[in-house]
């Protein structure tokens, strides 16, 4: 089955919270090496949270990435560079906290190293809670790839490539375009990157035609 996803021999997952999840979804989704993104809720105890009933969870981004292209430490550096993690963010309960969830001991070690390096560089103390990963609850569909929804014709053209809307949300091309519409990267960057996605010739031609035909 055609997936149009970037292929990777090995994938890892990064999970973190840094305020409203719409922005981080586009900020990290455009990065080469990121395969897919999804937004949701994590860090709390309430079962099955929703946006209207988030409980003690925080808005969270989860990404799957290829460590041969982008390393976990680079992701964390961008994470701390992209939001204010030195102030108290508990102004609306835990919804917009700065949280970092490590999936294994290696990620925990890297998180501590990057945090220490960042604090020494800026002479500030990071307030991010660094916690073991336990569970991630996927947010409602209308929060996924949020900024693409501002371009309904483009959204329709891209999503029509996939058998289900969930497949569209989980796709690499959706992650890239959701970043592009927020002025992260250029369409030419995406076109060049297609060469390294491991796509079939037909899949590559379909995406190239799509990128050329969309009118923003």
UniProtKB/TrEMBL annotation:
Q: Which residues form the active site?
A: 20
List the catalytic activities from the record.
[thioredoxin]-disulfide + L-methionine + H2O = L-methionine (S)-S-oxide + [thioredoxin]-dithiol; L-methionyl-[protein] + [thioredoxin]-disulfide + H2O = L-methionyl-(S)-S-oxide-[protein] + [thioredoxin]-dithiol
- What sequence ranges are listed for the domain Peptide methionine sulphoxide reductase MsrA? 13-150
Q: What class of enzyme is it?
A: oxidoreductase
Q: Does the keyword Oxidoreductase apply?
A: yes
Q: What is its EC number?
A: 1.8.4.11
Q: Name one GO molecular function term.
A: L-methionine:thioredoxin-disulfide S-oxidoreductase activity
Q: Any idea which UniProt keywords this protein has?
A: Oxidoreductase
Q: Which InterPro entries match?
A: Met_Sox_Rdtase_MsrA_dom, Met_Sox_Rdtase_MsrA_sf
NCBIfam families cross-referenced by the UniProt entry = msrA
PANTHER family linked to this entry: PEPTIDE METHIONINE SULFOXIDE REDUCTASE (PTHR43774), PEPTIDE METHIONINE SULFOXIDE REDUCTASE MSRA 2 (PTHR43774:SF1)
Protein function: Has an important function as a repair enzyme for proteins that have been inactivated by oxidation. Catalyzes the reversible oxidation-reduction of methionine sulfoxide in proteins to methionine.
- Family named by the database record: Belongs to the MsrA Met sulfoxide reductase family.
> What is the name attached to this protein's record?
Peptide methionine sulfoxide reductase MsrA
Give the organism the record lists.
Answer: Carnobacterium viridans
Q: State which gene encodes it.
A: msrA
């Amino acid at each position: 089955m055609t997936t149009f996803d970037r292929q990777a021999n090995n994938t890892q997952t990064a999970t973190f919270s840094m305020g409203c999840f719409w922005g981080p979804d586009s900020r990290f989704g455009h990065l080469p090496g990121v395969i897919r993104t999804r937004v949701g809720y994590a860090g709390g105890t309430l079962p099955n949270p929703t946006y209207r009933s988030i409980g003690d969870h925080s808005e969270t981004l989860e990404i799957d990435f290829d460590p041969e292209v982008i390393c976990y430490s680079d992701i964390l550096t961008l994470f701390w560079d992209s939001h204010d993690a030195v102030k108290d963010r508990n102004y609306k309960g835990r919804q917009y906290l700065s949280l970092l969830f490590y999936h294994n001991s290696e990620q925990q070690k890297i998180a501590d190293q990057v945090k220490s390096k960042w604090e020494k560089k800026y002479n500030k103390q990071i307030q991010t809670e660094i916690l073991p990963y336990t569970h991630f609850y996927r947010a409602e569909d209308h929060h996924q790839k949020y900024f693409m929804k501002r371009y309904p014709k483009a959204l329709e053209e891209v999503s029509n490539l996939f058998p289900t809307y969930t497949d569209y949300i989980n796709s690499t091309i959706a992650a890239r375009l959701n970043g592009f519409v927020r002025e992260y990267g250029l369409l030419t960057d995406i076109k060049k990157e297609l060469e390294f996605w491991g796509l079939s010739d037909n899949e590559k031609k379909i995406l190239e035609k799509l990128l050329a035909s969309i009118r923003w």
